[in-house]
Amino acid sequence: MQKLKQVNHAALTDDILKKLSQSRIATILEFLQEDTEKLSIITKLSLSDILTIRSHIFDKYSAPLINGATLLKRIKTKKKFLQTGIESLDLVLNGGIPVGHITEFCGLAESGKTQLSFQIAINCVKETGGTILFIDTKGDFSAIRIQKVLEAEQLSHKEMAIIMHKIKVVHIWTMDEIIELLQKIKNKTLAFDNLCLLIVDSLPCLMLQYLGDDNKIGLALLNTFVNYCRFIANDMEIGIICINLQTRWVDQDISDLEEDEKDRSTSVIKEIAYVEKRNRCLGNYWRYVPAVVLLLEKSQPFESDGKHICSHITVKLNSERENKSCNLLLNAIGVTSCIE
Amino acid sequence: MRINLVNRMAASSFKVESGIQLIARLTKKLTNIKFYPHLFPSGLKPGEVIELIHNEDMPICLITDIICTALLPTNLGGAESGVLIFNCSGNFNFSKLVTSMRQKIKSYTKTLDEMEVDDLIAKQFNNLFVVDIHDATQFYTTIYNLENVLLEHTNITMVMFDNIAAFYWSEQGFKIMKIDTYLKKVLSKIQNVTKEHKVIVLYSKPHYFNSSKDAMESLEACYELPSLDGVNYRISVSYDRDSIYLANVKSYNMQQEKRFCINEEQVTWI
């Protein structure tokens, strides 16, 4: 919660702020929820001055009211999707990566999340000519992998250079750093020419250090990160892809165990069933954040054309019960729609 | 002598009211709103609070359908009321609201052409207001500014928060406030501002956003009348099976299960 001294109003002098602080009114919220007459008594300011400060706070901090007419205009003119350049994936996504929202790519380790995000970054630059901001939190961003994809598309060196120049990479190691970066983008102190997509690869890398933290500082930082992402996505009309990790483990099926208990009385020995369970990382709070979740699952590798080892990746939309999915072909030279 | 008289008058038969209370009283809302009978069979009273609990895969279509019905004219099955949306989660899809409204209008009136439908949508959208909220400070300042907004737009009958838990974690420092306590505090702030204006408050919250792990059964009972930091309707939505969703609706005197499915992004009640 923002402090009252950040309000920057002429009537809120150091002396007044001190008096308010002594009455345990230090934040904007504490000021707003206090009775105006009481504030007038504490500060010895007139009621009219107190109301002017309140009004100043509303002007500066409250969200602007958007009426229906403006909203309709926005709906008609606003860019809704960012095409991925992979036809079958765009079909699953009803048009592409949603602009103004957070999209999650989730899958087990080595399921093709990074390679898919590289391919989408390249395709977006080719399609829109805009800039892609790639936030690398693993320290394994490889320009060579991107170059291989571009070479396979038989682009000239100049074309390759232009595309690679448009993909900006930032290495980030902590949640504080990523929040600072987003804050700079929000405040326009850091600007990118025609930014159209922001990719975070990957979020759990930053969050795992807070695992098991009783104070839930990690969640506070994650919430702040999400707030900034949402503002930037909406304000700058960009898409945001956050890569998340899926974990799996083998568990005993509880219902079978209960059955076992019953069976013991009838002296029938039953095998305990083991089931594979999967989970999206980042916990309950995160589960409600992305507008779209794509689950990636990689098949066993195979040799497709005698030259390249390929895998199929099944991309499944997790946000609806429709069970929309598509198969993509993944190899070192990129990700393409899979011809059945 | 005169002071004594005023004091006696104030203490006995006179009720002092503020300017806001006076204006709110003069622009008094309808006593009972017949609205969305699938969930609220006896209608909604001004000032009531509705809690909508949902899983992460609850179709946004349900909230869209509720808003759409609130906006539509009464002859098209709506409530023709003004709605203010606090877009806190950022996941509310306004394009889908337009699509949903178009389909509803078309299902009621077969005679209107596309232009007329567009005009009707634009007219009904005049009763819609949205605030995009991006952080906790903005959330609270906008709540306190609601007083001014409701005074200016007296047609607003419903204020909707999607979702109320969006900034909970960003507000927690080393000491964590219990989820239920937080929810009550936020709700009482909202009600303190909206109570004079008798607007219906609808908020969504995630299923996990609950201090107790026993979910619905452990939650506080619903109130009969609007009251500070208490809810009048609690609706829990979950996936049932075979593309059918289950809405468990509770009020002070009833509990019922309603099922719905989604056909082409439209809610169909079963």
UniProtKB/TrEMBL annotation, chain A:
RecA family profile domain span: 78-247
InterPro entries registered for this protein in UniProt: HRR_RAD51_Paralog, P-loop_NTPase, Rad51_C, RAD51D_N, RecA_ATP-bd
SUPFAM superfamilies: P-loop containing nucleoside triphosphate hydrolases (SSF52540)
Coiled coil: none
UniProt key word Nucleus: yes
Any Pfam family the entry gives: RAD51D_N
The entry's keywords: Nucleus
Protein localization: Nucleus
Name by which UniProt lists this protein: RecA family profile 1 domain-containing protein
Species this protein is from: Loxostege sticticalis (Beet webworm moth)
Phylogenetic placement of the source organism: Eukaryota, Metazoa, Ecdysozoa, Arthropoda, Hexapoda
UniProtKB/TrEMBL annotation, chain B:
Segments crossing the lipid bilayer: none
Signal peptide: none
Protein name, per record: DNA recombination and repair protein Rad51-like C-terminal domain-containing protein
Natural source organism: Loxostege sticticalis (Beet webworm moth)
